Amino acid sequence: MKDKINPVVKLIALVIGAVMVFLVDSVMILISFVLLLILLKVIYSVKGRFGRGIVFLVVAIFLAQVIFVPEGETLLDLWLFNITSGSLINGILISGRFFSLITMSWIFVGTTEPRDLSSALSNLGIPYRYSFLLIIAMRFAPIFQFELSNVQQAQKIRGLKIDNNVRGLIRSVRYTTMPLLYSAMSKVNTLASSMEGRGFGMYDKKTFLHPIIFSKWDALLTLSFIIFSVEIYLLNRIL
Amino acid sequence: MLEVQGLSVTYPSKDKASIQNVSFSLKQGEFIWLAGESASGKSTLMNCICGFIPQIIPADLKGSIIFHGKKNLDPLQLSRHITMVHQDPETQFCTETVEDEIAFGLENRCLTRRKIDKRIETTLRDLNCSELRHRELRTLSGGEKQKIAIASMLVLNPKVLILDEPTSNLDPISMKEVLKAIENVRRKSHDLTIILAEHRIGDLVEQINRVLKLEEGELSRDIRDFQDLDHEERNSIMDYSYPEYSREGVKNGETVLKIKDMDHTLDGKKILKDIDLKVRKGEIIALMGRNGSGKTTLVKLISALSEVQEGKIKIFDRVMDRSNKVQPYELGKRIGYVFQNPNHQIFENSLEEEIKFATKNFSKGGSKAKKWLKKITTEEDLDEKTHPHTLSFGQKRRLNIYSSSPHGPELVVIDEPFSGQDHQNALMIAGIMDDLWSEGKTLMIVTHNLEFAKEFCTRAVVLKDGRIVYDGEPDSLKSVSGENER
User: Fold this and answer.
1) Which residues on B lie below 8 Å from A139 (Cβ)?
2) In terms of residue numbers, what domain contains A156?
3) Facing residue for B344 by CB, picked from A135, A151, A205
């Protein structure tokens, strides 16, 4: 679901949030933050589930901390290693930070139209030539994903077996890069012609059919994010 | 208004000029059919007229293009007067919605939002597709996409509209839709000069008032009164026939493929429904139907490139269903597969290595690869070491078919062999497919080409919205959409 908040405000919130998760070292606050993010993801019904890859990484980061970086009192003495209070806290903090960063970015991308972000950035004075790159990237990402899968299928049906080792990786890169590159190159000229042929870059400014203007409400919202973050930081120091 | 004088263009990677000493002048309101085989220089010429060559696409350009007395303008200056619709709408779109795409050019020209809104409305109405305004581009059909591509150019009120093979990737019904849209544009604005490069223009031929034909980069014909040509002369330009292969349907023999009760869902949408199909050795099946009717999904399932969800496929002696999975490289020994996009399936740096790619992987078929390499290098006058990506589009397509099956697969699937190909190239491709069949292979050809299906194939299977709506002799097929069969 796309929301109505100015994408620039969300971008600022994302940056503040990213800084905050590194500043905060209270387990309580971080866990509350993680729960808040999960709630937001559900409320905005952001597409996609926490896949196996992410869960695996979060658990792996947690276990690595607990097993390899002992600190503080021993809570449980296992045969090969001890579980200590410090390592448990560090495990929760580090894996929680990682999880928060991913989820925040995910919510941002899932609730923001690239067009609106581009328009909002231009409104703040960023040249539209650069902000438009975002739209292009979003437009072509699924196309290249589709092409990648086609190229890999074409390799398999003609008998290419890619082993799960470094040699396999090199082979895979070798046989995948070239077809994708040629396919992309054939698209670049058409896209550039189609854009320039419609006057892209004719003037320094352009009209936006759906302008996103940074209003005083947006300023207020940004300010409240900052105040809230400072409060959290102070609370973190007390805890 | 537009004059081309002594135009020659040579690309950096080529020794030979792509167009040579081309001169002509256009009057306002002319409707020109730019004819010529693939690689005859049509796209090059059109890209020069728009100023894209040499500004965006580097090439050595000699001669001049004069628009209203001004010589060799740059693309931005020309964009005020001349616009071009490309072959593949997917590649020229730079936004995600219909409205944004049509607004794009007007936004760049800094028109007010009110004016933009009004112009979008009128343009969509002129093209009879107002209902598409609030749709996302990815949800449109091929024909609708191309109409929006035309709208996004037309909204700029150009003096010259150039159309580079706008229907070459479309099924016949979408193709008619787009040609009809062009006809509407023509009727509404007689001041607009239209240059249409297209292999097949159907009924639009009645509207054309001039034909420019390019042959090997040179302007070979400039017919000013096309309407006055007699029937035979018109036919000489518009011959799309195939040789008569006079094949019989295959009634008996070994079954190579059997599909039972197959359904397939993709992103929550049912792509295939209740598919039952039996294919015998030696059959040539034309798999037809509109874009998005499920043809590619079906052939990918047969080749183990997608996993079977519901139902069962028995291919040769292998069974694929929900619990039995087969890896594509296991099946690849017995199935050759040619994908739609030539670039996606060229992996090596020379013709020789490319044709031998599958034989190396399967350790089988070296002598056949050698034979075909010799054939392609002799017929096309190429060297074994030629880099495959320097070939023309038509040559790449032929290379794709050769390199799909030197290792002796019994079934060869070819997905849209003729897409973007002119008739001459299509005939050459048909020749190669005939060679494959003569070796005893079974062929499954995904195609929109009804004439080809009737002359070449032994059986036609038509899909509509994921269901088989026709399965029988190609001869009794009236259209490829499944609307009026049986």
Assistant:
1) 93-96
2) 128-203
3) A151
